[in-house]
Amino acid sequence: MVLTESANFALGAGLFLRSVFKAAVTYVNENKAPRPDKLKGINLKEPLPDNLPTIIDIKRALPKHCFQPDLSKSLYYMAKDIILAAVIFAVFKAIHVTFPSPYIYWPSMVLYWAMQGTIFTALFVVGHDCGHGSFSNYPSINTLVGNITHAFLFCPYYMWKLSHRHHHKFTGNIDKDEVFYPVRESDPHAHNATMPGFGFGIGWFGYLATGYKPRACYHFNPFDKMFKGHFFQCCLSLLALGVMTYCLHLLYLAEGWGGLFCYYIVPDFIFACFIVVITFLHHSEMNIPWFVDERWDFVKGQLSTIDRNYGIVHSVIHNIGTHQMHHMFAHIPHYHLEEATAAFRKAFPDLVKICDEPILPSFVRMYLKYEKQSVVQDDVQVHYYK
């Protein structure tokens, strides 16, 4: 299992570099002359029907067992990810000690970053399941595992759980969603400069620190209004971050600044890049609506998300690309998402939204549109990227 996964990661790293090249070409071409968009996917040019099923109707179309978490299966995926992360570290550390030549060290280090960053993302998705209660039926176990997996990635578990719950509650709502929403032109933050690509991983840690303006949220502050009534749980997550800080100090003592940077900080940054890309792309696409609060409802918001496939790492990062059903029913465990999605697509083919474009070129394309079109008029009712 471990060897097979590692071989897949190695191949995935090569495909990742190929995607980076294609994304760079897309960026250059878009800035020379915007190309006519030929959307690759399903129902991306068709609006949602006026008469939508209720959440009960959709739930009835899905197998009942998809809503039941299996603790042993969840623990298996967590253990597998932890073992893979440890094996990847041990193997590449041995390579670097045995073959110190820069001609081997640096190419293998780039491969390590791609593989370990992917596994870090998988670990985050395990903790993400904990936040939704889909890891197990035991809140105390969810809290323990969530704090362990998220603290390892230097994310305050309970605070992010609460802000992410807010995002799920108001998906696609211009006035209440949590991140990457359109901003009204009269807002003081409307014309703030944005780092290219949201700074990729920098954008993730910036979001944790201050939130997404104009609706700020300080994830490292247990007194933030978003976390009212959860002070003790937030402090436990901060304590977990303190333990992780001490572990990183031990890594520094053993490997120095260079080892800390190469073996932890860069993979954590790669994971953060994944999160920015995932969050943005599943809620941003041409002809996908953003509604003002008065025009929004829960079903419209959740169905206005997009499914995307992450290729060879899709299953490695636990099928998070099956986003429509994840958003409609956040308590579905990741290992049931594909089955639930297949049932949904069969029952409601006209509601399916799938983009088949490769991930990084798609991110570049949509970021350039976001950069030009995310500031909307004050009286807008529904906003579409064109």
Automatic annotation (TrEMBL):
The keyword Magnesium does not apply. InterPro entries: FA_desaturase_dom, Fatty_acid_desaturase. CDD domains: Delta12-FADS-like. GO terms for biological process: lipid metabolic process. One of its GO terms (molecular function) is oxidoreductase activity. The chain crosses the membrane at residues 82-99, 105-126, 138-160, 193-210, 231-252, 258-281. Keywords: Membrane, Transmembrane, Transmembrane helix. This is Fatty acid desaturase domain-containing protein.
